[in-house]
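Supplementary Methods S3. Input chains for the assembly prediction are listed below.
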Amino acid sequence: MSNFWNVYSGNFEFAFVLGIFALSAYIGLWSGVLSLAPIAFAAGAAFTSARVDFDHPGLPLAYHLLIGVSVGSFLALVTSFALLRLGTHYLALATIATVLIARVIVLNLPQYTGATVGIPITRMISTTQILIILAAVCLVFGTLRKSRFGYALDAVREQPEVASALGINVLRVRRIAFVMSGFFGGLAGVMHGQLSHYLSPDSFYLDLAFIAIASAVLGGAYIWVGPIVGALIYSALPELLRPFLGSYKNIANGVSLVLIMVFLQRGLIDPRVFRKLINRKGKS
Amino acid sequence: MSLLEVKDLTRVFGGLTALNKFCFQLEDGEIAGIVGPNGAGKTTALNLISGLDSATSGTVLVNGSLSTDMQSHEYVKLGIARTYQNIRLFLGMSVLDHVIVGLDSRRTTKFFQMLVPNRKELSERKKMRELGMEILSNLSIDHLAEAEATTLSYGHQRRLEIARALATNPKLLLLDEPTAGMNQTESQDVRDILLKLNSEGIALLIVEHNIKFVRDLCKSVTVLNFGQELITGTPEEVFSSSVVREAYLGKPQAERVKSFDNLRQGVSRDFNVSDFSEVGV
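Predicted structure tokens for the full assembly:
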């Protein structure tokens, strides 16, 4: 067992951080918005934190996390004013654009980001710290689900017009969700940087954005457990298939997403299925 | 001051005037109906009054305050709630959850209290569940509270829509074809529910195709046709009026032939006019 952990602990750590990325995409989906922008916010947060680490090495983790969430939320808030009035499809495209823009900015600020050379990070995050942060994030999502805000998000995702007629300010709910996606994106970005010890313009690019969204969709975008399960599967699949597929292992991710979309459109973890199972047990 | 005062309300979709200078009044606690053939502008009128759509011109006053300038989520504060012609439920949510969403405007907890549930938040959640169950039991669907809403029977889904609207504590309930697709007994149940709500002081504005239902329930009826108001009055006046019969059933045979003759005189083309007489128009 300890041998297993020694070999795979790195994969698990990245999987947990990917789980937080997936949750940052999930909160967008929860409000009915498909957004890849959390990755752009993560880039802003991670490079700021890396720069601070470069200038003042040895600051405690809490400082970096605080920098991460504040930069992430701030960028999300500013972006939300420009983007959230768009219709859903155009909004999704615009959030892809934010990821592209983030990369261009990173490449053109060599004095802060190191541009193509990248920037090293000396601070390291431990597995325990990652687990504690992940647990706290899960607690927030679990609590929100049955709160006033959780109900509002559900209603806004399913029927925005009806939600509005029931007195829910759709734009405001979406804006709060968007800022939260920046909050958790920034958090995950800082953790991702400290795990990889190094940031380059490619650290936060479309591949990470798509994997974050895909994890949320594959795991199930209707309850917060889904994205985390999705992230674990997405991290594990290529490793499990490496002996069989060799360098083609990443195909597994694409194929699994297609299969899920065809056969389980609501993802692996679907509260509806669980409710049906519970009801069936109750009746028999 | 009337509860609802609609003045010259107009809605144009591209080249189509769906509603043209519609005027309407509704007093506190009254039951009124809007009827008319398909495409007459009934649902458009309801969408404008409930804030789902915005008017091209004209005003709507609710209790004296101008609602046409408000955003649609603010209409709840005016005491307006509605149901939909095509039932619009939230997929995957339970019956009770629907009502709890409707109770949103009665809640007081702020965003940061929800992240860490304190005693106030938890007691409010409990209170909302109790209130929700109370509303459901008034409509006698409380036994279905935990079922997934979209699995309910059609009649129960209609009731749930009413329950969700009632959760916002409305003074005026707008109903878009509440008995569409229902049989005699089911629509009688709906009538009983609506009468009970009305006796509790809720004014009702009903858009309906079911003439019998409107005649039994409404004190005043407005007939729309092609976006124009034809007539407003008591059900007896309205349904015996020849204008309304014409709009619904068309003109009687003799009159139709006469009007076609008039039309024919205005047409000068090279076809044989007697062909038309053979067809029997």
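Confidence is low (pLDDT under 50) at residues 268-281 of chain B. The first strand of chain B starts at residue 4 and ends at 13.
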